[in-house]
Design brief:
The protein is α+β, with helices and mostly antiparallel strands. Helix content is 40%, strand content 15%. The chain has five helices and four strands, in the order E-H-E-H-H-H-E-E-H. The longest helix has 12 residues.
């Protein structure tokens, strides 16, 4: 099952869920506040940029998020994971995970990776 970690006010989260419904894919929408340690670690493992790949960008963030980012970058890995679970408001949304696939944010090109291979060939 495809997990979509989201927050209620996120337009990109809504777009992602609608995209999956359009193609008949079942998703489990989960509040970002409930992201598991396992899924945080998996998201980091499947991204190339480390913590930067799942945390909100400093440029577009409030002072609180910018300060939290700075604190996070000083932490050891396990401390950082615990910090993110306690402060999910600094995570980018949506975080979409299925097996060995992960997408952070909504991107029309990259979200296609969640379609079965045969469907991607037929549709695009």
């Amino acid at each position: 099952m495809i997990k979509v970690y989201s927050c209620g006010s996120c337009g990109s989260c809504g777009k992602a869920v609608l995209w999956f419904k359009k193609y008949g894919l079942k998703v489990e929408r989960i509040n970002i506040r409930q992201i598991s340690k396992e899924d945080l670690v998996r998201a980091l493992y499947l991204q190339n940029e480390g913590m930067d790949s799942i945390v909100k960008r400093a440029v577009k963030s409030t002072g609180l998020v910018r300060n939290a980012r700075l604190d996070l970058m000083e932490m050891r890995f396990n401390e950082g994971i615990d910090f993110l679970q306690n402060h999910p408001e600094i995570l980018q949304t949506p975080i979409i995970i299925e097996g060995e696939k992960c997408l952070v944010g909504y991107n029309e090109e990259e979200i296609r990776q969640f379609l079965p291979r045969a469907s991607r060939r037929r549709m695009f």
